[in-house]
Amino acid sequence: MSASLWAIIIGAIFVNNFILTRFLGLCPFFGVSKKTKPAFGMGLAVIFVMALASIVTWAAYNWILVPLKIEYLQIIVFILVIATLVQFVELFLKKANPILYKSLGIYLPLITTNCAVLGVALLNVQEDYSFINATVFGAAAGIGFTLALLLMSGIRERLELSKVPKAFDGLPIAFIVAALMSMAFLAFSGMIQ
Amino acid sequence: MIGESIIVLAGLGFGFGIFLAFASKKFHVKHDPKIDEVISVLPGANCGACGYAGCAAYAEAVVLNKEVPVDLCIPGQKAVADKVAQLLGREAGGKKTKLVAQLKCNGGKNEAGEKYKYNGVETCRSAAILSGGPKSCSYGCIGFGDCVNVCKFNALKMGANGLPVVDKAECVACGACVKACPKGLFKLVPHENKVHVLCSSKDLGKVVIKVCKVGCIACMLCVKACKFDAIHVVDNIAEIDYSKCTECGACVTACPRKIIVDERKR
User: Fold this and answer.
1) Secondary structure letter of residue A136 according to DSSP
2) Which domain holds residue B116?
3) For residue A77, which residues of chain B lie inside 8 Å, CB to CB?
4) For residue range B118-131, what is the model confidence (pLDDT) as tens digits?
5) What DSSP letter does each residue of B205-228 carry, written as one string?
6) CB of B204 within 8 Å of any CB in chain A?
7) Nearest to residue B122, comparing CAs of B158, B68, B173?
């Protein structure tokens, strides 16, 4: 049990990193990776939402969709569930913890329909994970997302200061960097079967 | 099948809708609508010249705390201060004179040489760490334009001579360039004053002559020429007291190094 959990964690963070190997959630990856601090805030929000979304979508799938044999509605139900969840978390944070809301709050609406979050939910179904496995997978996927975001923001902060040919300045060089990072992460493949 | 899916989706949507409506009532946070009104009045440049982290932070502070003055917004000047005061029912402060940023250096590429060839990261801040920068004058403008990069109002651009040029009509005196310049070459000066000393070198005259064609050598001729006691030499550099200066131009003609400049005659 613990060995397979470990495999799920390593697999989600490194081997099948959501951004660099599965190419999910690229929009926030390029949008919020200009500076390290917002990247970290965004990463924390994603970890939080992914773990929660895994729990709720697992429940929705196994307790509502499977008994009624309407699994083909999973995408639309997952979107509904995740959007509601994020909205609720935002409301709750605003009231319960204004300081945390100030640091995470602005990123929460960005994540609502993030494909990486939906991807976690769908992969949980595809891999037929148990409840605990699904939760751990969600959190680990979020950590992998944060790792990629932090690495990228560190590189882009340096890029700001270096001489880049005019045609590549800004987003183009960021895409090239992302491609190189993705190739580097391919080296992890084969670590886990 | 169809019936089940319709019922489930409609039920879920309805349930979530009710749940969110309930939650938004339950977790409702009281928010002073005046804060939003003040935010809409402020320029929204988030320059930080007021001393708060952006316009929203200042709006919150000025609404919630009566001690915070209504005229802290420097880019907005009197017009914004009046509007904020009106929104909050408070008195606006006295009339403020418009300030603008002035570069206190005139030693561009042609006037001041280089100590060494600099090949590092192209920011003034990095260059200044390496023996004070490549400029031969250790007080002079390095010319990579850190000030231009921080200016949010498009009031600064690099001139042909390797010195930044202030567009005084656009400048709102937020002070970002003053903080960004590692040499501290920017000063905020009253906009109506047109006579400025364009040098900041505190070196002795003979050192200045070697490194720059337009550096102040503290010859005191301007001090003698001034009839209004408005110019003094402190630490080997002439300095104008803007409260006394009448812009008669006596110092401009007296200066042998042409570092005191009258903007109107440029």
Assistant:
1) H
2) 98-192
3) 8-9, 12
4) 988 889 999 999 98
5) HHHHHHHBTT------HHHHH-SS
6) no
7) B158
